Amino acid sequence: MVILNYLLVCLIFGTTFLAIKIGVDASAPPFLSSGIRFFVAGLLLFVWMMWRKKASFSLLLRKEMLLTGIGLTFGTFAALYWGEQYVTSGIAAVFSATAPIMILLLQVIIMRQSPRRRSLIGCIIGLIGVTLIILPTITLSANIWLLVGSFIILIGQLFYSFGAIYSKSVTKRFPETSPIALNAAQMMYGGALLLLLSACTEQWQFQSLQSAEAIGSMLYLIVIGSMIGHSLFYWLVAKTSPIFASTWLYISPLIALTIGVLFYGESITWLTIVGAITIIVGTVLVNFDSLKQLLRKPQPEMTKLQNVSS
Q1: DSSP track, 19-74
Q2: Cα(309)–Cα(1) distance, rounded to whole angstroms?
Q3: Cα-flanking dihedrals φ and ψ of residue 28, to 5°?
Q4: DSSP state of 247
Q5: What's 204's DSSP letter?
């Protein structure tokens, strides 16, 4: 059961980037569609958690939910949706895998933490991978928007990194609250802010959301991407460990690159492939100590997995 759910998480998170791309290519306003996605998904999940008596309305009145929503949802997905107007879904997924590297940089620069040499090497390797993917766009003036979109997505990962670091302290403040309820609350706040941004910057022409592509993209992202995907992810965290669950970052970008080429005709070069592999290698090195801790405790973990599967 654990392995099946893990593979589902990798597949779901690997396909959401293409679903976003299909929506924005169908002229769905990026901030409006992302706002609807996260507010509706968060609302449905939160109501479900309240029905199960695992969340209370008072949670929505806490500033921690707003601040987490700004980082994990608002900043991250405002950048991702806008950037995917100009960047392929596969490259967007690869750039999203830089989040652990961004977190390391923030811990070094802002929190003054001293990382291990291996983590620093992984950070440098990851940044080289980003450069390999972006480099061709710098020399081609016709692709200036591809370059801009790439940098916007990377800025979004900075928002995610801030949110991820902050959310660690939030979970400690609410030890009795389900992580799914916390995630639902922050999605509601992030979605509401995205809708506010859309109201200030986009024309709300709802006919652009009525095409089959836009509707299919929206439904897939709300139900499969946000509600099922994130719920499975937090289930994996609870049943195994955050380290194991987060290893989707090493698999989903390659899935996104593959399905983008096979099912959406996205172009890919050898430089893109080398850059993607380089970023993933760098991300593995950044997280190497955590992954090594996971591998050092195979017996209890495997026993737990066997009990869950049986």
Answers
A1: HHHHHHHTT--HHHHHHHHHHHHHHHHHHHHHHTTS--GGGGG-HHHHHHHIIIII
A2: 5
A3: -70, 125
A4: G
A5: -
- Do 89 and 264 touch, CB atoms closer than 8 A? yes
Q: Could you tell me how many residues make up the chain?
A: 310
CA dihedral (214, 215, 218, 223) in degrees, to 10, reads -150
This prediction's pTM: 0.87
Alpha carbons 54 and 65: distance in angstroms, whole number = 16
Query: Residue 141, exposed/middle/buried by CB under 10 A (0-12, 13-18, 19+)?
Result: exposed
Is pLDDT at 307 greater than 60 in this prediction? no
Dihedral of the CA atoms 146, 149, 155, 156 (nearest 10)?
Answer: -130
Spatial separation of the C-alpha atoms in residues 227 and 41, rounded to whole Å? 6
- Residue (of 36, 72, 43) closest to 57 by Cα position: 43
| Residue type, position 281, single letter | V
Question: Cβ(248)–Cβ(7) under 8 Å?
Answer: no
Q: What is the pLDDT of residue 109?
A: 82
**With contact defined as beta carbons under 8 Å apart, do 137 and 147 qualify?**
yes
Contacting residues for 179 by C-beta, under 8 A, at least 6 apart: 171, 234, 237, 238
Other C-beta atoms lying within 10 Å of the C-beta of residue 198: 20
Whose CA is closest to 281, among 89, 130, 158?
130
The better pLDDT of the pair 260, 248 is held by 260
Determine the Cα–Cα distance for residues 175 and 304; give it in Å rounded to an integer: 22
First to last CA, the chain: 8
The answer to whether residues 201 and 45 touch, using CB atoms and an 8 Å cutoff, is no
- Asked if the model's pLDDT at residue 190 lies above 90, the reply is yes
| Residues 284 and 250: beta-carbon distance below 8 Å | yes
pLDDT tens digits, one per residue of 201-225: 998 877 878 899 999 999 999 999 9
* Alpha carbons 305 and 310: distance in angstroms, whole number: 9
C-alpha to C-alpha distance for 310 and 304, rounded to whole angstroms: 10
